Amino acid sequence: MGGSTAVAAPKYPKNPTWQQAVARVSAYDLATAERVSACESPGSERGRGRGRSPWARNWSNGPNFVGAFGMYHRTWDWAAEGTGYPRPPAATPAMQLIVAVKGAHLFGWSGWGCF
User: Fold this and answer.
1) What predicted TM-score, i.e. pTM, was given to this entire model?
2) What is the rounded CA–CA span in Å between residue 5 and residue 109?
3) Which domain holds residue 75?
4) Which one, of 18, 14, 19, 23, lies nearest residue 86 by Cα?
5) Is 3 part of a structural domain of the chain?
6) Which of 38, 48, 55, 62 minimizes the number of CB atoms within 10 Å of its CB?
């Protein structure tokens, strides 16, 4: 039975745009992620550079936690497994959004103090 040999799209885009990241998450997860990151990591990088996120966030690292979602280093590593994404600050906002939502699906949004 000669069928087509279509190649499946990669599960996690190598360098996703903000729009690609947003398209991968539910409306609930996007709204929750925005609320959590606003509490965890307010900043001033609205709409410029680093993936052009529309959120004003600090997409770098804090003293104890990584990125705009304030994830513990080990939690980031578990959630990022299989994505190929680096830790913040090398991870773009789009990558951080995807990893945060993946982490929430693994551990629940209630893992964040700002939930």
Assistant:
1) 0.83
2) 39
3) 18-111
4) 14
5) no
6) 48
DSSP per-residue codes, the chain: -----PPPPPSS-SS--HHHHHHTS-HHHHHHHHHHHHHH-B-S-TTSSTT--SS-B--S--SSEETTTTEEHHHHHHHHTTT-PPPTTTS-HHHHHHHHHHHHHHH-GGGSTT-
pLDDT band at 49 (very low <50, low <70, confident <90, very high): very low
Residue 74 makes CB contacts below 8 A (sequence gap 6+) with: none
CB 38 within 8 A of CB 82: no
Number of residues written out for the chain: 115
Give domain status of residue 91, yes or no. yes
Residue 96 is assigned to a structural domain of this protein: yes
CA neighbor of 112 nearest in space, from 59, 45, 67, 52:
67
Sign (positive or negative) of CA dihedral 95, 96, 101, 102: positive
Residue 2 lies in a domain: no
Please report, as a single letter, which amino acid is at residue 45. E
74, amino acid identity: R
**CA 33 to chain centroid:** 9
- 68-88 mean pLDDT: 92
